[in-house]
């Protein structure tokens, strides 16, 4: 009898202690700003992580960065974990724009303000703000580069796109199409790898559904391996008149390098111009070496500064300033937008090294 009373009181003491410890633990791990990024497997997002870390030095608010590793389920877990840590602001770049709605709706319920970062979260009213680059301008710059470097008439044009689950893939392709379509219509380019694009080549403006059809056919899913396979398939199927001097719309640097490698290894391809974006270090080396024609530099420091700046304004109890809005299928989301810079061999040093973005020692043959 005595023994069991002792055991019970000991248990009670342990339980009370556990409650105190966990309460302290919660307080100790309170986080003000949660940051969720899509994957560590692409240099682009590792770059963003580093820039967030740099920006966080010396701020009075605490932040935690988590990666979703290409999984919307993991993304939701991350958001729930951050909500449990008491965040007041969530900065999130969704893996999948539609699927992320559930995460941000949970955040909204918990009184958290949501900033969609780089990629727009779609079809929900639980997004408060959007910080982004001018993504249509990215696509236009890619298209314009191909137009400016076109060789003669009827040049084969290979089209590739990003992941259909990423709203940006639509904006990039839309921007590129606006510039390329008139040059397809006047015979400068001849689409070589997409029957859907050929069906629509008479249309200057494409609807979301029409874009979907083309993207569905030429998507890389933002995956270098998938881009490589598609490029190989396309070149295997291509007739002789779809080779020679060609133009390639590649949506970003990771896919551009693998597509460029495939085209470089085909002896019937005499020359190619290939686009990219992100100014990834590996692609800067490709540009220096003449293996990738251009990239679009998106200064991640500005995007991070804007996102963190907004978060601090919100935490201080004020309303952030915005410059426009983006419709996400359900609401107009107030947005702050940043410009982009076209980089090729001619300005690579000035734009990326002299500007202090990268070190000269990161590259060979600059
Ligand atoms: C980003 C690009 C990136 C791509 C693949 C897009 O949403 O804007 O910078 O290359 O996703 O991760």
UniProtKB/TrEMBL annotation:
GO molecular function: carbohydrate binding
Entry-linked SUPFAM superfamilies: Periplasmic binding protein-like I (SSF53822)
Signal as UniProt keyword: yes
Pfam families per UniProt: Peripla_BP_4 (PF13407)
Localization per Swiss-Prot or TrEMBL: Cell envelope
Keyword Aminoacyl-tRNA synthetase annotated: no
Periplasmic binding protein domain boundaries: 33-318
Any single Gene Ontology cellular-component annotation: outer membrane-bounded periplasmic space
InterPro entries cross-referenced by the UniProt entry: Bact_Solute-Bind_Prot2, Peripla_BP_I, SBP_2_dom
Alphabetic keyword roster: Signal
Name of the protein in its database record: Sugar ABC transporter substrate-binding protein
Species lineage: Bacteria, Bacillati, Bacillota, Bacilli, Bacillales
């Amino acid at each position: 009898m005595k023994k069991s009373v002792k055991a019970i009181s000991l248990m009670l003491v342990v339980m009370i202690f556990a409650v105190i410890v966990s309460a302290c633990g919660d307080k100790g791990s309170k986080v003000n700003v949660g940051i969720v990024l899509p994957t560590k497997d692409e240099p682009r997002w590792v770059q963003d992580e580093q820039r967030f870390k740099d920006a966080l030095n010396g701020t009075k608010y605490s932040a935690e960065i988590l990666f979703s590793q290409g999984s919307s389920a993991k993304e939701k877990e991350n958001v729930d974990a951050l909500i449990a840590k008491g965040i007041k602001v969530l900065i999130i770049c969704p893996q999948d724009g539609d699927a992320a709605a559930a995460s941000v709706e949970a955040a909204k319920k918990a009184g958290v303000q949501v900033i969609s970062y780089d990629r727009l979260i779609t079809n929900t009213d639980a997004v408060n703000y959007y910080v982004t680059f001018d993504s249509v301008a990215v696509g236009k710059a890619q298209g314009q580069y191909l137009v400016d470097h076109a060789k003669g008439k009827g040049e084969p044009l290979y089209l590739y796109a990003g992941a259909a689950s990423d709203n940006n893939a639509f904006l990039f392709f839309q921007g590129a199409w606006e510039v390329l379509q008139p040059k397809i219509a006047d015979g400068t380019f001849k689409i070589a790898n997409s029957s859907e694009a050929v069906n629509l080549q008479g249309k200057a403006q494409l609807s979301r559904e029409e874009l979907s059809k083309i993207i569905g056919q030429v998507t890389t899913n933002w995956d270098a391996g998938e881009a490589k396979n598609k490029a190989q398939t396309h070149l295997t199927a291509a007739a002789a008149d779809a080779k020679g001097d060609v133009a390639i719309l590649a949506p970003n640097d990771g896919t551009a390098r693998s597509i460029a490698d495939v085209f470089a290894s085909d002896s019937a391809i005499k020359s190619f111009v290939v686009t990219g974006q992100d100014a990834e270090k590996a692609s800067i080396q490709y540009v220096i070496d003449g293996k990738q024609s251009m990239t679009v530099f998106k200064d991640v420091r500005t995007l991070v500064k804007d996102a963190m700046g907004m978060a601090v304004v919100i935490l201080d109890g004020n309303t952030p300033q915005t410059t426009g809005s983006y419709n996400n299928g359900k609401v107009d989301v107030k947005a702050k937008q940043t410009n982009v810079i076209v980089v090729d061999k001619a300005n690579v040093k000035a734009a990326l090294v002299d500007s202090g973005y990268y070190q000269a020692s990161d590259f060979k043959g600059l």
